[in-house]
């Protein structure tokens, strides 16, 4: 009974891992620019690794293989986000920008969007407060 | 299910290779190669269960270490490339 349950649980984890892995690969292949590609790869890499290695751990049972799988998972948990961060930093430092948009324009747009949303939220909170006093 | 995971891993690795060949910038290529390396670690781990050879897990562990170090090394190499170019231009 327990064996059957473990078998199905590991199959489910492996299936989920395959799904996330394929999603990330399609994202890396199809997304239009470097930073969105990095988002697709970086997010799915860690999760898919976690799911697949968990599935393998359930298959392995209590043994040395379980310990080694745990070591691999721990190591990938530390290195995968670090590699993503280093990649983004390197791209930023070597002046890789999004196509047809300069850094200054980006910053200006971001600041304008921020100030306008801040004003909107202030207005909305004021409206809520006045509504509250009326109610 | 292990065999299906093996096939999915091979498909993902071929997609990453396509991106590494197409990749317009060097960073796209490094991203694809990093992904390829992570998937190779998983592939070795899955192979060790399909073929029933638990000693292959050591290879997967060492591969994970080497993959990380190589990606960081290549990134350090390309990180300050533009600064070097600018310095050379200023010197000339």
Question: What features would you highlight for this structure?
Answer:
heterodimer, A: about 140 residues, mainly alpha, about 0% strand, B: about 90 residues, 4 helices, elongated
Give a structural overview.
The complex is a heterodimer of chains A (135) and B (92). By secondary structure, chain A is an all-alpha fold. Chain A contains four helices and no strands. In chain A, α2 runs antiparallel to α3 (64-93). The longest helix of chain A has 32 residues, at 103-134. The model of chain A has no long low-confidence stretch (mean pLDDT 81). Chain B has 92 residues and is mainly α. Chain B has one domain (2-91). Chain B starts with a helix and ends with a helix.
Reported for the largest beta sheet of chain A, the result is:
none
Q: How many separate domains of chain B?
A: 1
Show unreliable segments of chain A.
none
Report the C-alpha radius of gyration of chain B, rounded.
18 Å
Count of individual beta strands of chain A: 0
Q: What fraction of residues of chain B sit in β-strands?
A: under 5%
- Structural shape of chain A: elongated
Strands of chain B, total number: 0
Query: Helix/strand-derived class of chain B?
Result: mainly alpha
What's the oligomerization state? heterodimer
What sequence of helices (H) and strands (E) makes up the elements of chain B? Answer: HHHH
Helix content of chain B: over 70%
What's the structural blueprint in terms of helices and strands?
The complex is a heterodimer of chains A (135) and B (92).
Chain A: H1 2-30, H2 34-60, H3 64-93, H4 103-134
Helix pairs in contact in A: 1-2, 2-3
Chain B: H1 2-22, H2 26-50, H3 56-79, H4 81-91
């Amino acid at each position: 009974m327990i064996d059957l349950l473990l078998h199905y649980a590991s199959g489910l984890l492996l299936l989920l891992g395959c799904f996330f892995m394929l999603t990330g690969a399609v994202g890396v292949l199809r997304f239009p620019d470097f930073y969105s590609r990095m988002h697709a790869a970086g997010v799915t890499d860690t999760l898919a690794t976690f799911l697949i290695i968990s599935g393998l751990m359930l298959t392995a049972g209590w043994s040395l293989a379980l310990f080694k799988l745990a070591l691999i998972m721990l190591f990938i948990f530390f290195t995968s986000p670090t590699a993503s961060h280093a990649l983004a930093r390197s791209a930023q430092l070597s002046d890789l920008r999004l196509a047809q948009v300069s850094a200054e324009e980006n910053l200006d747009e971001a600041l304008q969007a921020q100030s306008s949303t801040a004003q909107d939220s202030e207005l909305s909170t004021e409206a809520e407060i006045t509504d509250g006093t009326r109610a | 299910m292990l065999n299906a995971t093996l096939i999915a891993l091979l498909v993902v690795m071929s997609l990453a290779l396509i991106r590494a060949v197409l990749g317009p910038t060097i960073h796209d290529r490094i991203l694809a190669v990093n992904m390829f390396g992570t998937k190779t670690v998983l592939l070795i781990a899955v192979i060790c269960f399909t073929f029933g050879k638990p000693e292959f897990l050591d290879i997967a562990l060492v591969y994970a270490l080497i993959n990380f170090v190589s990606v960081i090394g290549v990134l350090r190499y390309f990180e300050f490339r533009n600064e070097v170019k600018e310095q050379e231009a200023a010197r000339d």
